[in-house]
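Handout, page 2. Input:
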Amino acid sequence: MKYYVANFKIEGAGDIDMCRDIIASLAAEAGFESFEENGDTLDGYVQQELLDEPLLKSLLEDFPIEGVNISYTIKEAEYRNWNEQWENAGFEPIVIDDRCIIHDTNHPAIGSTDALSAEGSPILDITIEARQAFGTGTHETTRMIVNELLKTDLKGKRFLDCGCGTGILGIVASKCGAVEVVAYDIDEWSVENSRHNAELNGVDNMEVLEGDRNVLSHVNGVFDVVVANINRNILLEDMCHMKEVMSHKGILILSGFYDTDGFMIAEKAGELGLSLTKTEGCNKWCMLVFSA
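Output:
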């Protein structure tokens, strides 16, 4: 899958971090899905077929901070470097609520995973190799959802991950007792990566499909727990389809958006008859939990 990378230059700003957050939020509406700080600028990545550049220009021209000017240059992301960035960088082990350790193959787990958590259950040891896919546990949104899954009774439940990235959420769900896991992603790299990571972790009850929300029409039955860690616009478009495959009293866990977008997400969920049961935030990122 081919990407563009846009370098956003910020002029006239007193608070660079705030401007970066606003740019990321606006650019997400035009299709951008990930961002990296680059000195005083911001790099944004977008799948080539999803870029809406007229919308991007319009949004940045109406930047909400007076006196701040945003310009950008855009080019095709180098395929080889994009791939190597995910595969070779690796990440330090991540401990979530003293109950789960996430690490890659280059970094062993911290301490002994044979130890028990404070609740007396074994500590989950999750190995993730990121190959051009989002979801290693380093991002706030992934950590919040993993933490929520650790607190959720998943034994014997059917679990659906919409936009699975590395497959980490489905793997955690399986390790926590989910009887069946279905995951899908529009990115072929993510699909292959999820399958690879499931195998790495000995997960054999996880089916990974390639495609967008339309794959749900080919999936039988309903799901007790549905999660999606993707950008705001896709959530707003796809939430009704997620609701259709939720079981009676099913749970929907959403993240991938900023605190400022939480109301919009909750409002859409309310229109679909879902009840908000939990709100959580971390460093301006938001997670919402709903029940059917």
